[in-house]
Amino acid sequence: MWLVPSRGRPHLAQRLFDCGFKERGILILDEDDAEAYRRVRLPFGWQKLIIPRLWLSPKLNIAFDLNQGSPWYGILNDDHLPVTAGWEAEMVKEGQKGMAWPDDNYGKRISSHVKSGDLCRLLGWFVCPALKHYYLDDVDELLAGMVGGRFLSHIMVSHEHANAGRAPMDRTYRERPNPHLDKKAFLQWKESEWPAIAERLKMRKAA
User: Fold this and answer.
1) In the chain, where are the structural domains located?
2) Does the predicted TM-score (pTM) go above 0.90?
Protein backbone atom coordinates (compact mmCIF):
# COMPACT_ATOMS: atom_id res chain seq x y z
CA MET A 1 0.00 0.00 0.00
CA TRP A 2 1.35 3.39 -1.02
CA LEU A 3 1.14 6.28 1.43
CA VAL A 4 1.25 9.69 -0.28
CA PRO A 5 1.12 12.76 2.00
CA SER A 6 0.48 16.05 0.25
CA ARG A 7 -0.18 19.65 1.24
CA GLY A 8 -0.66 22.70 -0.96
CA ARG A 9 0.34 20.81 -4.09
CA PRO A 10 -2.61 19.22 -5.88
CA HIS A 11 -0.79 19.72 -9.18
CA LEU A 12 2.19 17.67 -7.95
CA ALA A 13 -0.06 14.96 -6.56
CA GLN A 14 -1.70 14.72 -9.98
CA ARG A 15 1.70 14.61 -11.70
CA LEU A 16 2.66 11.69 -9.49
CA PHE A 17 -0.59 9.82 -10.07
CA ASP A 18 -0.33 10.34 -13.82
CA CYS A 19 2.84 8.23 -13.77
CA GLY A 20 0.59 5.20 -13.46
CA PHE A 21 -0.03 2.90 -10.51
CA LYS A 22 -1.13 -0.73 -10.36
CA GLU A 23 -1.04 -1.01 -6.57
CA ARG A 24 -3.52 0.62 -4.21
CA GLY A 25 -2.74 3.51 -1.93
CA ILE A 26 -3.88 6.43 0.18
CA LEU A 27 -3.59 10.16 -0.48
CA ILE A 28 -3.15 11.74 2.96
CA LEU A 29 -4.54 15.27 3.25
CA ASP A 30 -4.96 17.92 5.93
CA GLU A 31 -8.50 18.98 6.81
CA ASP A 32 -7.73 22.64 6.11
CA ASP A 33 -6.31 21.83 2.67
CA ALA A 34 -8.38 18.91 1.37
CA GLU A 35 -10.77 20.99 -0.73
CA ALA A 36 -7.87 22.02 -2.99
CA TYR A 37 -7.56 18.35 -4.00
CA ARG A 38 -11.19 17.93 -5.03
CA ARG A 39 -10.33 17.63 -8.72
CA VAL A 40 -7.30 15.37 -8.31
CA ARG A 41 -7.89 12.09 -10.16
CA LEU A 42 -6.86 9.19 -7.97
CA PRO A 43 -5.51 5.93 -9.39
CA PHE A 44 -7.95 3.02 -9.40
CA GLY A 45 -8.52 1.60 -5.93
CA TRP A 46 -7.02 4.58 -4.11
CA GLN A 47 -8.65 6.51 -1.28
CA LYS A 48 -8.27 9.87 0.43
CA LEU A 49 -7.53 10.05 4.14
CA ILE A 50 -8.40 13.47 5.54
CA ILE A 51 -7.07 14.21 9.03
CA PRO A 52 -6.24 17.23 11.20
CA ARG A 53 -3.05 18.96 10.20
CA LEU A 54 0.00 17.13 11.52
CA TRP A 55 3.70 16.77 10.72
CA LEU A 56 4.87 14.14 8.26
CA SER A 57 5.67 11.30 10.65
CA PRO A 58 2.35 11.19 12.52
CA LYS A 59 0.45 11.50 9.24
CA LEU A 60 2.12 8.41 7.86
CA ASN A 61 1.72 6.45 11.05
CA ILE A 62 -2.00 7.23 11.28
CA ALA A 63 -2.43 5.88 7.76
CA PHE A 64 -0.49 2.77 8.75
CA ASP A 65 -2.51 2.31 11.94
CA LEU A 66 -5.77 2.45 9.98
CA ASN A 67 -4.56 -0.10 7.40
CA GLN A 68 -2.76 -2.78 9.39
CA GLY A 69 -3.22 -5.74 7.07
CA SER A 70 -1.14 -4.78 4.05
CA PRO A 71 1.79 -7.04 3.05
CA TRP A 72 3.85 -3.89 2.39
CA TYR A 73 3.86 -0.14 2.86
CA GLY A 74 5.62 2.44 0.74
CA ILE A 75 6.00 6.20 0.79
CA LEU A 76 5.96 8.58 -2.12
CA ASN A 77 5.92 12.31 -1.44
CA ASP A 78 4.19 14.68 -3.82
CA ASP A 79 7.58 15.92 -5.00
CA HIS A 80 8.70 12.45 -6.07
CA LEU A 81 8.68 11.59 -9.75
CA PRO A 82 9.13 7.98 -10.90
CA VAL A 83 11.45 7.79 -13.88
CA THR A 84 12.37 4.15 -14.54
CA ALA A 85 9.94 1.84 -16.31
CA GLY A 86 8.77 -0.93 -14.00
CA TRP A 87 9.71 1.03 -10.87
CA GLU A 88 6.60 0.14 -8.90
CA ALA A 89 6.70 -3.62 -9.42
CA GLU A 90 10.41 -3.78 -8.56
CA MET A 91 10.10 -1.68 -5.41
CA VAL A 92 7.14 -3.70 -4.15
CA LYS A 93 8.74 -7.05 -4.94
CA GLU A 94 12.00 -6.24 -3.18
CA GLY A 95 10.45 -4.22 -0.36
CA GLN A 96 8.24 -7.11 0.72
CA LYS A 97 11.42 -9.02 1.55
CA GLY A 98 12.26 -6.44 4.21
CA MET A 99 13.04 -3.03 2.78
CA ALA A 100 13.96 -1.49 -0.58
CA TRP A 101 14.53 1.98 -1.94
CA PRO A 102 15.44 3.50 -5.33
CA ASP A 103 17.96 6.08 -6.46
CA ASP A 104 16.35 9.40 -5.48
CA ASN A 105 18.50 11.55 -7.80
CA TYR A 106 19.08 13.91 -4.90
CA GLY A 107 20.79 13.03 -1.63
CA LYS A 108 21.40 9.31 -2.27
CA ARG A 109 19.60 8.60 1.00
CA ILE A 110 16.48 6.57 1.75
CA SER A 111 13.62 8.78 0.59
CA SER A 112 10.86 6.96 -1.23
CA HIS A 113 10.94 3.34 -0.06
CA VAL A 114 8.96 0.18 0.67
CA LYS A 115 8.96 -1.76 3.94
CA SER A 116 7.43 -5.17 4.48
CA GLY A 117 4.19 -5.21 6.41
CA ASP A 118 5.63 -7.71 8.88
CA LEU A 119 8.49 -5.35 9.67
CA CYS A 120 6.13 -2.42 10.24
CA ARG A 121 3.86 -4.48 12.47
CA LEU A 122 6.86 -5.66 14.50
CA LEU A 123 7.97 -2.06 14.95
CA GLY A 124 4.45 -0.79 15.55
CA TRP A 125 4.95 2.03 13.06
CA PHE A 126 5.85 2.87 9.47
CA VAL A 127 8.22 5.75 10.27
CA CYS A 128 9.83 6.62 13.58
CA PRO A 129 7.19 8.27 15.80
CA ALA A 130 9.81 10.11 17.85
CA LEU A 131 10.41 12.44 14.89
CA LYS A 132 8.29 15.03 13.10
CA HIS A 133 9.89 15.24 9.65
CA TYR A 134 13.68 15.15 9.61
CA TYR A 135 16.08 12.26 10.30
CA LEU A 136 13.56 9.66 9.19
CA ASP A 137 16.14 8.56 6.63
CA ASP A 138 18.69 8.05 9.41
CA VAL A 139 16.29 5.71 11.19
CA ASP A 140 15.50 3.89 7.96
CA GLU A 141 19.21 3.39 7.27
CA LEU A 142 19.58 1.74 10.68
CA LEU A 143 16.61 -0.51 9.92
CA ALA A 144 17.91 -1.35 6.45
CA GLY A 145 21.21 -2.46 7.92
CA MET A 146 19.41 -4.86 10.24
CA VAL A 147 16.95 -6.38 7.76
CA GLY A 148 19.19 -6.59 4.70
CA GLY A 149 17.53 -3.71 2.90
CA ARG A 150 18.26 -3.37 -0.79
CA PHE A 151 19.24 -0.23 -2.67
CA LEU A 152 17.73 -0.46 -6.15
CA SER A 153 20.40 1.47 -8.01
CA HIS A 154 18.80 0.64 -11.36
CA ILE A 155 15.50 2.25 -10.36
CA MET A 156 15.11 6.03 -10.19
CA VAL A 157 12.33 7.82 -8.36
CA SER A 158 13.59 11.37 -8.56
CA HIS A 159 13.11 13.66 -5.58
CA GLU A 160 12.23 16.90 -7.35
CA HIS A 161 13.11 18.97 -4.30
CA ALA A 162 13.59 22.73 -4.18
CA ASN A 163 17.05 22.26 -2.67
CA ALA A 164 17.99 20.35 -5.81
CA GLY A 165 16.89 23.31 -7.93
CA ARG A 166 14.02 21.37 -9.47
CA ALA A 167 11.10 23.13 -7.76
CA PRO A 168 10.29 26.51 -6.21
CA MET A 169 10.75 26.95 -2.46
CA ASP A 170 7.02 26.97 -1.81
CA ARG A 171 5.03 27.37 1.40
CA THR A 172 4.95 23.63 2.06
CA TYR A 173 8.75 23.51 2.14
CA ARG A 174 8.97 26.68 4.24
CA GLU A 175 6.54 25.44 6.89
CA ARG A 176 8.56 22.39 7.89
CA PRO A 177 9.48 21.89 11.58
CA ASN A 178 12.75 22.87 13.22
CA PRO A 179 15.42 20.36 12.06
CA HIS A 180 17.50 20.91 15.19
CA LEU A 181 14.67 19.61 17.38
CA ASP A 182 14.34 16.50 15.22
CA LYS A 183 18.10 15.96 15.41
CA LYS A 184 17.93 16.07 19.18
CA ALA A 185 14.95 13.69 19.18
CA PHE A 186 16.74 11.30 16.84
CA LEU A 187 19.86 11.15 19.01
CA GLN A 188 17.74 10.53 22.10
CA TRP A 189 15.75 7.82 20.33
CA LYS A 190 18.91 6.15 19.01
CA GLU A 191 20.35 5.98 22.51
CA SER A 192 17.23 4.98 24.43
CA GLU A 193 15.06 2.96 22.02
CA TRP A 194 17.14 1.71 19.11
CA PRO A 195 19.15 -0.92 21.05
CA ALA A 196 15.97 -2.79 22.03
CA ILE A 197 14.59 -2.55 18.51
CA ALA A 198 17.86 -3.83 17.06
CA GLU A 199 17.77 -6.77 19.44
CA ARG A 200 14.22 -7.66 18.41
CA LEU A 201 15.25 -7.52 14.77
CA LYS A 202 18.21 -9.81 15.47
CA MET A 203 15.92 -12.32 17.17
CA ARG A 204 13.48 -12.12 14.26
CA LYS A 205 16.29 -12.75 11.78
CA ALA A 206 17.57 -15.72 13.76
CA ALA A 207 14.14 -17.33 14.15
Assistant:
1) 2-206
2) yes
